[in-house]
Amino acid sequence: MPTSWADSVSAADNLASAARPKSSYVPPHLRNRPTSTDPPPQASYAGPAASSQEQSGYGGPNVGGNRWSGPRNDFRSGYSGGGGRVGGWNNRTGGWDRGREREANPFVDDDVESFVETENSGINFDAYEDIPVETSGENVPPPVNTFLEIDLGEAVNQNIRRCKYVKPTPVQRHAIPIALAGRDLMACAQTGSGKTAAFCFPIISGIMRGQFPRPPRPRVAFPLALILSPTRELSCQIHDEAKKFAYQTGVRVVVAYGGAPINQQLRELERGVHILVATPGRLVDLLERARVSLQMIRYLALDEADRMLDMGFEPQ
Ligand SMILES: Nc1ncnc2c1ncn2[C@@H]1O[C@H](COP(=O)(O)OP(=O)(O)OP(=O)(O)O)[C@@H](O)[C@H]1O
Questions:
Q1: Which of ligand 1's atoms lies nearest the C-alpha of 241?
Q2: Domain ranges in the chain?
């Protein structure tokens, strides 16, 4: 009998898989193409399942033999997300606003609010210190006590200060080092405990430090990270937060959700995207229109995965 959330999800998963034949979804633009184990069209792309760094061209987050980067000194990347040039990303001038478009300051509204409120969210994070945290798995990287203990890069550290985050919440203390070490992670923590930053910081930092080939096709968005969330509201919230964390890092975050006209979202995608925040239905739509490819995805986050399964999004 399932004893925890994870058990019930896994039991539901097993039931669902047993009930129907296993076939993975292949969007139309990828049908009749080489399988993912075959070399992709661009010679310099070593693919998400690359087992060796020696494969040509991809110097990405695969440092030290795993898919996620450990700390690196060179913060260069050859990938612009399709939207323009990038140089050194981990500096204040390395943003995507150096070309035709200016990066809007996502902290503008916060500054207005700070006249009436100096604390970040009114949540008493000190009380969270008493919350016990359990981790399982082998050789779990130890938690950190401060953001400065984690090498997220100066641009992200600056954004953490702009967000007025003084210290990491428990889920952040544990999850960020685990993700930065290149490990897969499932985390459960109560609402409002800072899970968004827990998965966004390692993704942004990994993209800043990685080296990626240019997207192989124009007019198709090749995000490096995908964050799936069940609803439009949640996706917009994550997008707003992620834009703050990624401000002036050069990492561009775009959101796509259903129930709204797709054209504006398509235009945003055409300008370039490193992190795509999407609801499952709209993502499938974009894949079917061949406007987004998941071929270059290095990071996948499923926010509220239990809810997405409850809502029947498992096939997507
Ligand atoms: N280390 C921190 N210090 C102060 N505030 C923080 C910190 N981390 C996150 N916050 C703020 O706490 C609030 C809640 O965070 P967030 O929305 O990420 O929580 P969550 O766990 O994802 O919640 P939900 O389960 O509702 O999605 C946000 O306003 C966020 O900016």
A1: 31
A2: 58-316
Global pTM value: 0.71
Residue 114 Cα to ligand 1 midpoint, Å, equals 17
Closest ligand 1 atom, residue 147 Cα? 1
- Which atom of ligand 1 is nearest to 172's Cα? 1
Q: What are the pocket residues of ligand 1 if the criterion is a CB atom closer than 6 Å to any ligand atom?
A: 120-121, 123, 125, 163, 165, 168-169, 172, 189, 191-197
The Cα 47–Cα 36 span in angstroms is 8
CATH of domain 58-316: 3.40.50.300
Structure tokens at 18: 């047993």
ipTM: 0.95
For the segment 90-146, what is each residue's pLDDT rounded down to a tens digit?
A: 333 344 444 456 788 999 877 554 444 444 555 666 676 777 889 999 999 999 999
d(CA 270, CA 275): 13
